[in-house]
Amino acid sequence: MTIRDCVTCSQFRDEITEYLEEALSREEREIFEEHRDRCVPCQDYFGELADCIEGLERLRVDDLSPEKESELVALLNKRERSGHERDESRRGLIEGMLRELMSHSPEQRMMLIENSDRFKSVELCEFALERGFELGAREPAQALELTNLAVLIVDIFWVEDQSAVFSDLRVRAYALRGNALRISSDFVGAARSFEMARELTSSHSCGPSAKATMLALQASLHGEQLEFERSLPLLEEATTLYKQTGETVEVVRTSLVKAMHLANSGKSESAAQSLLEILQYVDELAVPRLSLAVRHNLAFSLVASGRSDAAKKHVPEIKKLHMLVGNAVDVMRFKWLEGQIAVDSDQLKEAEELFVEVKQFFVEKGMAHDVALVSLDLAVVYLRQQRVAELKALASEMLTIFRALRVHQETLAALAFCRRALDVERMTVGLVNELAGYLEKARERARFGVGLSVAE
Amino acid sequence: VARTNLRVDLGGVEGPEVIEALLDRDEEVFARVVRAHHSSMVRVAMAYVASRESAEEVAQEVWTVLVEGLHQFQGKSTLKTWLYGILLNRAKTKGQRESRQIQISSFESEETGRCDLLESASCSEVRSPGRAPWVWGNSSRAPSPEAWTLQQELDVCRAKAIALLPDRQRVVITLRDIEGWSSHEVCEALDLQPTHQRVLLHRARVRVRELVQELSKRSPRR
């Protein structure tokens, strides 16, 4: 008995596909073929299976009807129009409606909206809000008018339908109007509008995204009034909500504002911590401008909390991003930051060069507050080296600038004291820092020192 | 058995010039690509979804993706591989969503391929919870009852037999024996090892043969 006789019928049948796929070895193939030639039932089975396989091919029927074909081909052009172009024309229509409304007086506008269904449009309301937010600081009056209009429209909807869709829109409308009022320096009106939005979120179901928008904008109002103990919890809550909705860009923006408010309330360390936490989000987003703002402000907060060494690690990346997206002012702020790091590592010559360059830049730009602040940094460099003559000259220069800035009485007094101290050559770094503290407080608007603002 | 090469003739529906023409929204070329693949895409989608309508929907979605997202096509694969990659993904997802279908494969193990649902699946009526046979095509081409031939009846049995297969066997046999894909193409599209692909294909073929015999015996017409 040879090995070939060992092939059983069931083995043969199992191997048919392998045989057809040419996956058998030469020897296996020979055994297979030999069995087929010898065993009649297996021969039949083989034939049946092969017929079956061939029969399946018959199922491949081209049954695309001409109608279906033209329907599918039409996708080519329908999609083209329905996508971009249709949105564009719709937007154009809404824009036209808005222009028409805005050409009337506020009273007429109200009449038109109340009496014409054409203007009762969610799209129009959203468009007005979007436009209003964009215009923001550039055209405060126009931004306010637009958000007022949006509030007017959504209030009309609200009378008829208090469902979730409209409560979200209404919360956003009131919050964005609050923001527009803040920018126009009507803090009382702004607070009232935010209060209205807040009431809505507690009495009606409101989506997390709309609520987060409201919280973040209200926090800006508190921040502007230097009420950081009120702004910080709101920003915290907004960040949590944005994380839930997955709006990463907003998570980053809100955290940047939070860090700014922390730094302005003297908590540089917490500011650094909060910025460190969002680094991962920033890297995911890969938006260079946001990345720059976060990293720069992080390094700044680290320097301010006495951790220059930690700040240094971020410098190469920041430098790269400045080259990519930084403007002239940003680059100067970066040089300023480098100067501060240099002071901390006792590279006073390098620091001096940097501060002088930065100061000159801000003098030319007429940015007096920044001139004053960088002058104080320069003062520290001179002090460390006991360069009294330069210090005296700088102090006189600063006094002029500070007067022009109409800074606080106490600051002026402190500066006057410094000058006297200089006269008796007893000025200390502590005194300069105290002066810087006064100056910071005297800032009309809470701003982030040498930090970068979030706005693009 | 001399297996003829069943591959769809891709003349004029592959290559950079076709992509170029599609990006330019050339209707004629698009129609050619649609004609070359649509019926096949519907049949392949049928391997996953419960009805012909669903399969048509999936195929149509793929065309929409092509029209809107062709610029994302990197040219790293053939257009065919790209299209069917999207199709298989979408069909699988849709199939999973269509919970209304009773998974026939849950009644039988892939190992034995035994199926107790045969009772309810004779050729003359579609009582099975599974998939309707697709050979009908569009209604205008469905043959009148008088014109039925034995061959056509066999086709219906084959289609029904395939519908009764476990999922993975059904996809493999559809792509290989109906659509005429090479084993390499199937392994790539379904991420299968060649050996595994052969095992699935063999089981499917054996099972289809059995089922076809069973079903045609039961058919009241014989």
> Helical amount among residues of chain A, as a percent range?
over 70%
Silhouette of chain A: flat
Span from first to last CA of chain B? 28 Å
For the largest beta-sheet of chain A, the strand count, sense and barrel status come to: none
User: What proportion of the residues of chain A form beta strands (DSSP E)?
Assistant: under 5%
Classification by helices and strands of chain A: mainly alpha
Number of strands of chain B: 0
Flag low-confidence runs of chain B: 1-11, 99-147
Can you tell me the overall shape of chain B? Answer: globular
What structural class should be given to the helix and strand makeup of chain B?
mainly alpha
Q: Which two chains touch over the largest interface?
A: A-B, 35 and 46 residues
Distance between the ends of chain A: 88 Å
**Low-pLDDT stretches of chain A:** 1-5, 444-456
Q: What proportion of the residues of chain B is helical, as a percent range?
A: 55-70%
Our Rg estimate of chain B from Cα atoms comes to 18 Å
Count the E strands of chain A: 0
Task: Write down the overall mean pLDDT of chain A.
Answer: 82
Number of helices of chain A: 23
Oligomeric state: heterodimer
Mean pLDDT of chain B: 73
Describe the 3D structure.
The complex is a heterodimer of chains A (456) and B (222). Helix content of chain A is 79%, strand content 0%. Chain A is mainly α. In chain A, helix 6 runs parallel beside helix 8 and helix 18 (328-344) packs antiparallel against helix 19. In chain B, helix 2 runs antiparallel to helix 3 and helix 6 packs across helix 8 (194-218). Chain B has 222 residues and is mainly alpha-helical. The two termini of chain B are 28 Å apart. The interface between A and B is large, with 35 and 46 residues.
